[in-house]
Every structure is written in structure tokens, then in C-alpha cells.
Amino acid sequence: MASQPSPRRLRIGVDVGGTNTDGVILDPSLASFSPSRGILAHIKTATTPNPSDGIMTAITSMFTQLEATNADIHPEDTIASVTIGTTHFVNAVIERDPSRLSRVAVLRLSGPFSKHVPPCVDWPEDMRSLILGYHARVKGGLEVDGSLISDIDESEIVEQCKEIRKRGGIKAVVINSVFSPIDTVYRQEERAAEIVRRELGGQGEVDVVCSKEVANLGFLERENAAVLNASILRFARRTIREFRQAVGRLGLKGVPVFITQNDGTILEGEKAAELPIKTFSSGPTNSMRGAAFLVQGQKDGKKEGQVHGEAMMVVDIGGTTTDVGLLLPNGFPRQQAAYSELAGVRMNFSCPDIKSIGLGGGSIVRKSKNGITIGPDSVGYKINKEALLFGGSTLTTTDCTVLANPDITSIGDASLVKDALTEEETQQFKTIVRSKIEKIIDNMKTSPEDLPAILVGGGAVIAPDELQGASKVLKPRWSEVANAIGAAIARVSSVVDTIKSTEAKTEKQFLEEIKKDAIERTIAAGASPESVEVVEVEMLPLQYVENKTRFVVRAAGDFDFTRSYMSSDDDENASSEEEAVGEDLSEPQTIIGTKPKAATPSEVNVLTYTPNVLNRIWHISETDLTFISTGCYILGTGGGGSPYASMILLRQLLRSGASVRVVSPADVPDSAAVGCGCGAGSPTVSIEKLQGDEMMQAQTELYKALSSSSSDQSQNNKATHMIALEIGGGNGLQGMTLGASSNMDIPCVDGDWMGRAYPTKWQTTPVVFNERSPIWSPIAVADGNGNVLVMPKAASDAAVEKIIRAALSQMGSQVGAADPPVTGAEMKRWVVENTVSQAWRLGRAVARARAMNRLDEVAETIVEECGGGQKGAAAKVLFKGKIVGVRRTLRMGHVYGECIIEGMDVTDDTTSTTNDGEGTGGQRGSQGVDGEEKVGFTGKRIKIPFKNENIAAIRIPAEDGSKDDENQELEKQEDVLAIVPDLISVIDAQSGEAVGTPEYRYGLLVIVIGIAASDKWTGSQRGIDLGGPKAFGFDHLKYDPLGRFVKPVSVIDEFDRSI
């Protein structure tokens, strides 16, 4: 006898929003061919103060619909799962609601590190003051190799617990330890958490969150995520408990309850109560996935169809917020890059690229003598009681919409709002709503072309039928419950993120084991075995750490309907869970006083901004710093490490009153002493072990050594000026940081010793000129943890590099280095001039492209800033496409690898290319901005070999595509698009930001830019030998100049206001 299909085939999707609770019952087996899309019942009902009431009302109503139309279907026997999505948690954060957010203390186990960058330093001020109640640093933390920075000191933690208790009102404590995600031996966060729980009272009095349980590597971003997670825990437990209770009271025995995550997959309810932050973006994700489900497969030309190959905006208007995302032609949301941002807080989650504003159907409308304002606060679920339409006393956007559109007769009692606004106020209301929605759509776009917009969500009624920036406005059937549909069709996934030693096994062997582990975890989480596939793989060798590789593998699959009833909570487990959380019914700690308003800092107009240059001294502002930081990463050519942490540190100095000055190389006296300082080590370490005092410690020790031992009296004097070792990456800011008035109080030279980033110290222009040798000794390095190495003499600059690199692994793989000063005359001969200015101009170009909504041409704008725009000029766009492969290996502390990019038109946000190579990709960029014939990139491939930094951009001939790694032929000279010492930079096509080699990942849309190297490198054979192909092992290729070098234009020369 043939086996019968499982009777449990129906899925319930429920989305509990701030205003409405939506639901669907969906039969996936009918989705592909039935006009109903498999939707058997749907409902939209008001969210209730107790979410369980709204869930019960929604599901009960749908059961009634189902039984009326399908009498042979019995819900208790056919429901496979209940999946719930909610915006409750993210709404609390966006609204800055103190009744739902608890005060949090942060204990850093970081020893001397991170002292200059306190917790929540990069948050909006109102968010920081609302949530952060206390913070302290204590001993603890690991080095990247797993050894101790220092062990925790119980007495220190006990003393900090006393301080936390004194302050009162703190209901959660976050423990954040350096490199805690790899801490499987010392378990510092877990041990510290046990002490905190013991000292701060019984169960339920204080929540303790270990950062490693929330996010992965990235100290600041992980801490940010852990703090938000801790702040929302009490509200989350109460909310999720009510979800479980609602389903239990409906008699759905043996039916599992899931919560949707940020990535559109599901999380078991108990786990979601511990990690509510992983649901923060689930509402918008569900809406976008639901929208894709509703429009997929419809024919071109239909009113509500999605045109094949066309990107679409999804505008989800709920009761409290409007969320906008870009739906790619494949039906999935566009993803953010390595870091995501929510309510101004930067985190390291992989999330869909969603922008939110406080505008929804329940947003409160206020009238004043200056006109009307809308939101960001909302009546939320109370709309059916508090809105005027329903007899309440609060004017909402829905009230005003009904007043402005007499044709809307299905919402409340229109007679109750007839005098709510004057005609002039009504027009003003319509203008504000339209403007808010059009502005957020405009901000999401990466090119000025209009795109179709799908309106979904219960608050969509407030949106106009036409929007500037939208080629058409679509509202498909069932769009009002798109978020519930997205929840119902959510998949199952699992991620394995681990670091392994590759001494005993190869990376390939480990990868196969980890893939298997990820697949098994996904199946265990409820996926059907035949549907599970590995969807994401990353291998990241750790620089300057021998035989260590970080593996990140994600697998995903469809929910297994045939066994869903066996994977559910039984009554005993459900009741015990309810009892465990039922004791915690107290309200979250609130802040005495009025609710803080959203921060409204004055915004600088980047289109008209001019820097402050007075008497040929450039006084750096925060705006300048932002521009320079962005430009430094572009000039880093994939290496140098992200400047973000260095930028935050320098910004803190500026905000504390320090001044930072930059001067032209030409204005430096010949007799000056120009010092240099830099950080050396692994970028992986720099994002985790934040800078302490090692940079200044190294300077202090260097000048002690110089004053006591140097026979060259010209080097006995302390530096009068500072210069950056390399403008590329985080070191591009170190000259300004060391020279700040709160540190050495000396000006920084507008230039550096590389004009880019290079992996070794001997790849610098003073070594190229070779007027004296060695140039880089004496040298001092400090690790910030009490260890200092001073090297008074060296046989050569290559020896300096080798010895310092060898010491690195014993000094935590990150040090601050101080180099001996050179004379002003020497500096003028050796310096790559005006590179701080160049970084500023590149960063300004990116900021202007964003402000003008011209990210589709950001690469061309960067090229023009570097002297491109004509044939044979200094820069050009080399390629546009999608990263389709990344290989990495570690040799002598440096990460070698190769990035494969497949050509495509990145401006249209397409994610696939045609097999015949046809396409219109990158029309402007394909010229290289040099007048050459336009050639599309679609159907072509290039590879970028790298050694920390990018080495070259090389075409991959079509016939090489089928060869395996071992049979690949050596690259041919005619396939070289650009090669060192010229700069090869990769930027994110959707943000304009640089992409570092550690951030290369499959699927990222990128643009490759080539910039001609300084003539300080290309003007001699020695320069080409030290910085060119041979220095990276590419002896079979020769340097062929990309174009004619153009000296960067000095900001000081252009903007000086001399008195």
C-alpha cells in the first residue's frame, strides 16, 4: 500500500505588530498552482495589551473561516506548526520606550584595552542615556591564540557589583570579554556571570548576558548587540510566554511554536526568549518574504505582477513604523554588508538592508501654531480605543487619512473626525506623509531610476497611490497580511562559527566536517534532510597567528512537515517553561522623568561643507574625520584594517576638546624632526582588542632610547611633527591621533610613506630612496599589556620587519610601534604628498554620492577625484560584478588568497547573469572613464590575488573556467588589468564603502577601481622592485602602469584662509 501524506501539512503564520495582529493558514502544497496561493484563511485584528489575546482571536477566527470553507479539515489534526513574527521588540527600541527597556550595566573583561572607547560610545546620545546605567573595565580577556591577557579577578568583579547595586534601577548586566567567542577553556564570561548573579541577588532580580552568546567577533559591535539584547530581555520573556500560552489554550497539542529570526528563518520559542535581538528585523523580513511569495510567478504586464529581472521596493507600513527594503529579482531581500545598524546602533549581525521610520497607522498627529507633526510615537495596539475614529481622544494618521479620503468608509466612524483638521492642515498632513515615505524610499535606492513599490502591511492605507521615486505602486491581494505569510513560509537554518587549528588537519578536511555539522544541526532544528543545503561558507585564516582559521558555515532547509508533530513541546514541558518564566512578571525598570526625544543632531551639508584651514593649518573637524576615515579604507587596497575603531577613538579626543592639526609637507622646516607611529598586527585582532595606550607607550620608550644611546644628535630631539606610516586602513589616522593636543600636541603632515597600504615595513618610500640604511631603527614596540621591545640597532630594514613580526605572535598579534624621526628635508624628498587630502576627497565623494542618491556612479566619482576622466589618466573603473569565490591561506603571518568576481550590472541589483554573456552591465564604468570602447562586464570574470592587500586584477580567460586549482596556468601579461604598485581597491556597490580582504564573501556586489601609484614608487626600478609584482612572488608578470599619476590636490592649498 502506498504511504499516505502526513495529515499535518498546514502552517499558521502570525505576525504580532505594535498595532495589528495578522494571521494566515497556508497549505504549501497548493502555493505554486492555486489562485489562492495556498492561503486557506487570513485575518487582521487589533493587537491587544496581552499578545496572547490577539493571537487567540486571530487563530480562532481563521479556524472559523477554515471550517466554513473546508469542512473536511480539522485544525487540531492538520496544523503542522505555528510561526510567530513580532516587531514588539524593535518598536520598543525605535520609540526609545523606557517602559519596555531596562537599564543595563556593562562589565568589560579587557584589562588595559578599550579604555579610550567606552561602551555605547557610537550610540545616539538619547539611546545611550536611556539604556546604559553603568560601565567598568576589569581584568580579563584573551589573546587571539587563546592565551590570557589576564585572568579575571573575583574581588574586582565583586566591587563592581557593589557599585551597580548602589546605583539602583539596573536590571541587566552585560559581560564582554576580549575574544570571548573563542574562549572554550577559561570561560571568563561564564565565570564572571556566575559571580554577578551571586552578588546581585536571587533568580530573576538581574539578568546577566554573556556577549559571546549574542554575537561573534567584533568587540564593539558584539557589545552593542548584547546591551540591546539585555535591555529588552524582560519584555521579551513576558511577550513570548504569552505567545506560547495562546497556542496552548487553542488545543493545538503537539504543535511546535517558532519565532522568526532576522534572516527569515525560525527560532524555537525558548531560545528566542533568551536572544530577542535575533528577532529585531524579523517583521520587515517577513513582509519582504511574504511580498515575494505573493508576486512570484505572475506574468509580465499584469497589474500586480513582478517584472522578470526587476528589483522592487517593499514598503511595509505597520501601526508604529514604516520599514522599507529592496526586494531583489530572485525574491529575497538585499542584505547589509558586514555590519548592520538599528536605531543608530552598529552591530555585527547579518540582516536584510532595512530602513525604518516612526510612521504608521497609529502614529500620533499633533497640532501647534507651527503646523502639525507626525510621530514617532504611536498609540499602537490601542488604536481601536484611542483613535478618534473609534471614539477615542488621540488624533492618529489613520484618522487623518480617513478625513482626507472620503472614499474610505470601512474604517471606524468617519463622522468622528470631520472637524479634526482644517483643509490647510489636511493638505499639510498629506504632504508630510508623502514626504516621509518618499524620503525613505529615496534613501534606500542606489540609483536615481524609479522602481516599482509594493505596499504591504495594515497601515498601508495611509500611503498615497502615487509616490515620487516609484515607477508604480502595487498592492497585491493579501498584501495586508504579507508579514504573516512570510512567517508561515520561513525556513530552518543553523550556523557554525568556530576557530580551528590546522596543524593536524587541512582546511579542506575541517570544512567538510563543519559543513556536515551545520547540516546535522539544521536537520535537528526541524528541517527535512533532503532540502538542507549549505548556503554560506567563509574561511578566514588569522593573520600573524600560526595555523589558526576561522570557519563560518550556514545551512538552511525547508521545514519537515512529516515530523513536525513529533518535535513539539508536550504539556509537561510547556507548563514547566511557563512556571519558570511565570515568576518574572515585574515591569521593566523605567526611568524617572519624561520620555526622551529622539536625537536630532545638526547635520552637515556635505554638498557645501568646507574644511577649516587658517594660515595654512588644517584644523580637523568630525566631518573631516569621517571623510578621511572612509578614504583611508579605500586607499588601503583591501588591507590595513578597518579605520572604524581608530576613527571612534580620534572622534572621542575631538569631543573631549582636543585639537588635531594637519600641515602641508611644503610648510615643514628642513630642520624639523618628523616622527612616525603605527599599529602592527592582525586586522582580526584590531576589531576585537581595542587600542589602549600602546601607541603612546611606544613613543615614550623610543625617545628614552634615543636620548640615552643615539650618537646622531639630529635624532636626540623629540618629534616636532608626525606622519602616518601608511595612509591605507586604520594606520592612516594614527599620525593625527598621536599628534592630537591631548597626546604629543604636534601637527601631522599631509602625507605618508606609502600612498596606500603595504604588508611590510620595508615597502616604504624612505627605503625606496635608500639614502641611508637602515631607516627604521631604533624602533620601539609596545603591546599595551606591560611588554615593551626596543631595538636600538638592526642590520637592515628587512631585519627589522622579520624580528618585529616574530615578536608579534608573543605580544598578542597587535602592537603599537614608534619609528625614529627623520628631518624635514628628508621627509620632503621621500613623502607621498597630500594623501590625507586624497583620503578626505575620496570620503567626501562617497558622502556626496549618498546625499545625491548617486551610488550608481560612486566609483566613477572616486575615479575623477583621483585624476581620472580622460584617456591614460590616473584612475579607472576596472570591473563590476559579484564575488563568487574566495580562497585564503596563511604564509609567514600574512593572508594570501584570491577573490573571484563574476561580471554583472551591479547598478540594477541583479544577482545572476545570462549564459550567453549578453547584458548592459556597467555601461559608464566599463569605459574605465578613459574614452575606450564600452565593453560590458557580464559573462566575464576576474581574479584578485592578495597578500593582506590586493596585488592585481587579472582577467580569467573563458577556457580556464573549467580547470581545477592544480591545473591552473600561470597568469598571462595580456590579462592583467592592473598590478602593484598601482592601487587595486574593491568597494561595495551598494554603499560606496571599501571592502577589506577579510570581508570578501560570496554574493557581495562590488566595483573594482584602479588608481595609479605615486611616482615615488614608479620613478625608479628600485621602487618597482620593492612594491611591484616581484615583491609578491609574481615574477612572471611585469609592472605596466595603469595610467599617468596625478598628484592629489591639497585641501590646505584649496581652502586656506590666510590672515
UniProtKB/TrEMBL annotation:
Ranges where the record places region Disordered: 566-597, 907-932
Hydantoinase/oxoprolinase N-terminal domain residues: 11-199
Domain Hydantoinase A/oxoprolinase: 222-451
Domain of life: Eukaryota
Biased composition (Acidic residues): 568-586
Pfam families assigned to the protein according to its UniProt record, in alphabetical order: Hydant_A_N (PF05378), Hydantoinase_A (PF01968), S-Me-THD_C (PF20906), S-Me-THD_N (PF06032)
Positions of the S-Me-THD N-terminal domain: 623-792
Domain (S-Me-THD-like C-terminal): residue spans on this chain: 796-1042
InterPro entries, A to Z: ATPase_NBD (IPR043129), Hydant_A_N (IPR008040), Hydantoinase_A (IPR002821), Oxoprolinase-like (IPR045079), S-Me-THD-like_C (IPR048350), S-Me-THD_C_sf (IPR024071), S-Me-THD_N (IPR010318), S-Me-THD_N_sf (IPR027479)
Protein name: Hydantoinase
Organism: Neurospora intermedia
